[in-house]
Amino acid sequence: MKTKVLLIGAALGLAVATASADAVYSSNVVGYVNVDIVAGWNLIANPLDSGNNMLSSLIPEAPYGTEVYKMVNGDYIYATFDEDEEDWYFPTEEFGVNPGEGVFIKAPQAFAITFVGEVKAGAHSVELPAGWSIVSSPTPVAGDLNEIGLTSAVDFGDQVYQYTSDGYKFSTYDEDEEDWYGQVENIAVGEAFFMKKANASTWTRTFEIK
After folding, report:
1. Which CATH number fits domain 120-207: 1.10.3210, 2.40.300, 2.60.120, 2.60.40?
2. Mean pLDDT in residue range 1-20
3. What pLDDT score does 27 carry?
């Protein structure tokens, strides 16, 4: 899975009236992220807020038979792309993919997804339940598990499982060493991962415009 990121300051194209002290403008960042899907299984995330993060809006087209699985309360709901209807079929309920969440995609062939949206300035939180979940960084910043801020929300023995073309890699948090040990080296923008936690916590990241 490869990603390409372009973020543009939304405020750059705005004209602010110098005579008004009450001028209102956006300090958010808008742009797009390209995520390359390989044939087979992919563990991906929507790193931007489109305002309508429903699956049909985020991924309007996909190869026939593409399946998307989302974990909800420890179980999966899923959707299949129907080429005849040119839309997603939801056996149970329609669902979305918000920043901070993640989904499994099973694709019959390679294709690309372009996520378009914004990153709102300020704090963004992801609820990490006890047990298994699929999550992602709520802001589009890549890095190791410390750099993406996950360490602040974990306890001794909590684990991260990353899915790659070679299978799963995992890392475990060691509270005594205050660090991770294992195989997970980097989480890309647009990539999701499994979390296995003993206790629920909240993962908070802050996005600042400088």
Report:
1. 2.60.120
2. 44
3. 57
